[in-house]
Specification:
about 850 residues; Serine Threonine Protein Phosphatase 5, Tetratricopeptide repeat; two-stranded antiparallel ribbon; 2 strands; about 0% strand; Pentatricopeptide repeat-containing protein At3g54980, mitochondrial-like; PPR_rpt; repeat
Amino acid sequence: MKSSLKNSSLMPTFLLRSFPSPKYVCSQPQAPIPQNPNPNTKFQEKITSDSHFPSKPISDSNFPRKLILLHSKDPNSTLSLTQHTSLNQTHVINTLLRHKNYPESALKYFLSVEKKLASVQSIDVFCVMLHILVGSPQTYKRVQYLLNNRFVSGDLGPAPVVFLDHLIDTRKRFDFELDSRVFNYLLNSYARVNRINDAVDCFNGMIDRDIVPWIPFMNILLTTLVRTNLTDKARECYDKMVSMGVRGDCFTVKVMMRAFLKEGKPWEAEEFFREAKARGTELDGAVYSVVIQAACQKPDLNMASELLREMRDRGWVPSEGTFTIVIGAFLKQGNLAEALRLKDEMLSCGSPLNLVVATSLMKGYCKQRDIDSAFDLFNKIKEDGLTPEEVTYTVLIEWCCRNRNVKKAYELYAEMKLMDIQPTIFNVNSLIRGFLETCSLKDATNLFDEAAESGIANVFTYNIFLYHFCKDGKLNEACSLWQRMVGNGLVPSIVSYNHMILAYCRAGSMDMAHNVFSEMLERGFKPNVITYSTLMDGHFSKGDAEQALGVFDEMVGVHIAPSDFTFNIIINGLSKVGHTSEARDMLKTFVDKGFIPICMTYNSIINGLVKGGAMNSALGVYREMCESGISPNVVTYTTLVNGFCKSNNMDLALKMHYEMKSKGLQLDVPAFSALIDGFCKKRDMVRACELFSELQQFGLSPNKIVYSSMISGFRNVNNMEAANDLQKKMIKEGIPCDLQIYTTLIDGFLREGKLLSASDLYSEMLAKGIVPDLVTYTVLLNGLCKKGQLENAYNILDEMNRKGITPNVLIYNALIARHFKEGNLEEALRLHNEMLDRGLVPDDTTYDILVNGKAKAESSLSGVSCA
């Protein structure tokens, strides 16, 4: 039996589709259509969509009336069809067999006894009827009808393998010609009505019985399995077909490739394509479209481009969907130029510019910071009649916010509403983040309140605002927002807790930070590497390296792997608190564990060494950094320049400055500021002025720190005219003059005896609401005493007393020296006693004044300066 059913002559041949002229390739081609049957092979026939692939079962009312009329030439047919008195399985089968050569008469009889036959419960009668019908090309359609409407469409009947065995048994017992058509029709019927498990069982049963499923019906089964995400079963069925020497056709290739893509295995889809091509399988444009999709998923865009060219060489025009996939893939790789070329090619092939491609191109422009081109395309598609959708607006709003063009982003947000496109919370969150980054707190607050009141604000919305408050140290605002979030029924996330821990760490409240940490654990949240790293940074900022390293040990103990961020915090923290040697040891340990240091890592160590005055060691780390292949940045050089200036090594400082320029680094204001300050302190105002001019030639604007250094420098060389000019220039440029600069200028004018100029500056400072500090008062009192202005000096002293500011030793020294100079020994001694009563400890200058008296006073005054 098995060997006879596996006869290759029983397998139909099929006409594969071809494309003699260019035409568009659809994404879902129909199953291959078999060739016209060989007249010598009874079960071979042409399968069309009207016959063997009906879209729905044929009802009794639609069953052609002429097909159930008696057309038999058998004179006994009428008698056979009307005598039902002794109805049983044997009688019915014998009656059907007498009409074996007249299938239409047999069918009429079967239909007439069908209801009574149900009580007989015999599948053999049904199998005999199917064998009779399949024996004639004129009644092939009736086989499908009976299977679909009388058997497969319901849940009754035997299991598929049982039915198969009955079909095989009745064929042998009643000597029907061998024809696998009925078995394939049964498989097709199961698949068509989505009885998937039965279809698979039927398929396996046929394979086990050496009945080869026909390729079109196998394709229908595979398609059904892939469509319902049963890709594993599809692969099993296909592998069984291959074991029988049947690999399928073009449609099989497409279905199986789609199965691989659904499994996320594009490389297997590609390999399947190559194997089919190597076997000589006639492939079509639809198959090429699928393998192009696989290439884009890998991604292998060179292969995708080659396949597109091959399609065009074969005269096939890629579909709009294929172009869309490839364009999107190139944009994901950042290749905007090729994506634009493909877009033009798509248009030249007659496909319109669709919204997906347009939106993807807009995003591509935005990623390259070409927002203008993105909006040009946006306006063009609107002019061409395309209506932008939510995703299009979302892309533009997001990238406008990233580029700090929040005004334009909000215009798009308003336009969405006018077009009845409801903005999502993602759009709202983008705008809130954009407003906060551009310091538009009021706009951000209004949008946030609107979202909260409407109920669309989610935990991400709150987290955006929470982070804004936490990083800026606005602890009270952060706590209020937390209560509002919880009050609105939102559950804080791990990100929310991390933000609050950051807030308390920034405020220096480490106990509260650990309380939040404990609450997070109680709520069932698992701290992550950011949680622990934030706590570590908080302890390092408080100067508590031991606690910080304890948190690190705790993190490792719960098996949370440190990140590069963590390692950098530890190295930076140790360097900050003066444990630079330990930081260097830690760095070596971390590197052994796979940590790759970055420029910031070395900068932290260099900065720690510079602060400790270990310039040789700092220079050694700099060389080690360069030898490791890590290029120093502006911060590296600025730190070293600052260190060399402080150690009075201006030659090395200049060398570092020139090296920084020779490497083409983008110099910033701090890079010049350190060197300018160094020359000002060396009183080399010629070099300082040269650097000041160079800074401006680089297109940079001096800041308050640079102006302060230059003004102090000119004061030190007694050039108050230049110092005063700089102060006027900085005010003109909108840079506010702070207390330190006013104090420096007042000190300079008092040194030159220009009391009026000093007084005017002091009044100007007070008018601006700038409150003098102890240094300012010391400068004023010292200057007034040197010029014999004791009355004014005591007025300043009274002002200090009213404000609760205790005079320092320098102020008492100035007053005592002046009184000695004027011969007022009694007042000088009273001031000395007053100084002792206030708990101030006299210094060497005080004792020199008291011991040497009036003779020493004059010379002592020249050394009293504190600006």
